[in-house]
Amino acid sequence: MKRISTVTFLSIILAIAALPSAAQDRQGGDDDAMLPEIDPQDIEIRSEFKARFPGLRRQPILGFEPASRTYSVDPDRMPYIESREEVVADLPISELTRPDPPAYTQLHYSPDINAFGRLGAGSYVSPEATFWGVTRLNEKSYIGGDLDLSSSEGHLDNQKSSFRFLNADAEFATKLDDDTRLGFDLGLENSFNHLYGIESTALSIPDSPRKEYGGFNLGADLQRLKNGVAGWNVQANMRYYEARVYAGDLAGMTDEGVYNASLSKRWAGAHPQEMITAKLGGTLGDYNNSITADQWMTGQAGVEYQRLFNYEMNLTVDASVYYGSNAFEEKVYFGPTATIELPIFEGAILTGEIGAKPYVQTAEDLHSTNRFLSSGNDFRHTYRMYGAGELELKYSEVGSLSGGIRYEDISNQPVFERNALSSQPDELLFYRVRYADATRVRIYAGASHQVVPEKFWLHGKAYAQLPELKDGGRVPFSEKLGLNSGFGLRLFDRATIEGWADYRGLRKNDQGQNLNDYLLLGGQLDLLITDNIGVYAKVVNLLDQEYQKWEGYVERPMQIYGGVTFKL
């Protein structure tokens, strides 16, 4: 009986133990399963228990935090450094523009005005007048002009020495739209002077020879700039000039027309402050005098490149080719130029320049330089090659120093010399022009300083040069030493004193003879009576020196001027 009970009890225990195993071995499709199906994604493992599910395909498991990754770094790797372009690419647009320049401080004694005039007279019945003015016609247009007049009855006792120099210019400009500007200019010159006396046994020349010269010019300029940089510009102008000499057997006349036109197109580059300009232009000169009548022409085609490097160094390079034609030759000239401005440290700027360029000094240029020039001259192309270096040091807000050197090699430079008849070589006549090759080395130094800011200031520039002809000798009428200097002193709000000193060293004429050096001192007092009207007094050649700029004519001794000034 006991055996049967024991067997029965063991059978019940085995049946109960077999039920979970059977349930786990049943297929998922069996609807009679006693336990519900559990999705592995619904299993949440807590605490630090780490579980592995070999048959699981979907990750991650909620609550599962694998260990952080560890990267192996090569100890010999190169560090990553961004290039300048990559650095600039990450900057905001507002930081890509050029830094603002230092603030400009105006001298308060010179307020903004629309017009200024000076009328006066001096010794030897010498009236003078200066005027300039500008006014707006509307918001888009303005008109302006200037006038300079100096005249005298003369100072020589034994011959007439009167003169008049008059120049006037006017300008008008208007904006056709926001990007387009149109401008016109008009100029006028009307002058005369008596020449120095000539005693000749072979020619009939009056005691008081006279020369009259003048002309006019017209010009137009059309400019269109989309953003202040990119755009194009067209220019055209013409100039007529005439010079007549009334001197008996030496009488003559020169008239000249000069016509100029140019076209330029400018693009903005890919870098800040980078510009590219294409240029095309030409100049035609048509002249007629007592000796010959002919033409000359200069044509230009080229490209100019400008860029600011590292927000410090300015570079300008011009690659141009010129074609020159005159009565003596036709030639192609190469005219490259390059200019670099490099800040060395704060307040110090080093400038270097090198280049070459052909040009023609017109009849107007030559007669304006030497008013005793005769009328019969020809014209050739001058070709100048040069190199220069300059250092400017601004040691404070009120002072600066500068100095540099310049070298020039010039082909066909106009040289002034006294004319003479072959039969009478000792009897020198008026000046003429000949062309010669020359070199010039020039060293200079300058300074500017406000001793008392806005009250007392000084400036000066001294130079030494060696102008030599390649065929021997010095360039006639060129000094070796020179000085230009001046000062200003503001006594009080309505009174200002200015002074100047100009020195020219020893020179040689075309015969190799020395011409005396001279020092010209002068001063001027300006006194305002009202805000718009004042008076002035001026003295010129204070040392009363007897000097000659051009051999044969003694310039005026000391002169005293006085007059009125006005401003609007």
From TrEMBL:
The keyword Signal applies. GO terms for cellular component: cell outer membrane. SUPFAM superfamilies: Porins. Residues 1-23 form the signal peptide. The keyword Membrane applies. InterPro entries: Beta-barrel_TonB_sf (IPR036942). It is found in: Cell outer membrane. Gene3D superfamilies: TonB-dependent receptor, beta-barrel domain (2.40.170.20). Keywords: Cell outer membrane, Membrane, Signal. This is TonB dependent receptor. It comes from Fodinibius sediminis.
